[in-house]
Amino acid sequence: METVLYVYDCINSRQRNARRIAFTKELYGYTYTWKTRGGLKTRRKPGLVDSSPLCEVVTDSAIMVPVHMKDQFDQLFANYRDILKVRAFSIERELPVAV
Question: Does residue 14 sit within a domain?
Fold first, then answer.
């Protein structure tokens, strides 16, 4: 299956901390907790990576995405283009590695 490899990096992440955190939450999802009378409740809000089981996080700033999900990831990266540098590479097949 053809995949797309996204490699991204935050520009001036310390200056725009709120935007970086919003991007990370939208991409990877997050868990939130609230207090009720019965105790603490926890729920997970999924991110874009969670929406496709075929997405693979390669490193902290590289993600492999099936080609049919490319438009959704392009839109997310476009929304945060003011804080990100992004490169996308088409991967047609994986080569075996002799270990």
Answer: yes
The answer to the question of residue 42 being in a domain is yes
- pTM tops 0.90, yes or no: no
The terminus-to-terminus CA distance of the chain in angstroms comes to 24
Domain that holds residue 49: 3-91
* 63-82 residues labelled b (16+ CB within 10 A) or e (exposed): bbbbeebbeebeebbeebee
The Cα–Cα gap between 27 and 45 comes to 11
Distance in angstroms (rounded) separating the CA atoms of residues 27 and 83: 14
Angstrom distance (rounded) from CA 61 to CA 77: 12
Over 80: is that where the pLDDT of 16 sits? no
Using one digit for the tens of pLDDT, what is the confidence trace for 38-47? 999 999 999 9
How many residues are given for the chain?
99
- CA dihedral for 16, 69, 59, 33, sign (positive or negative): positive
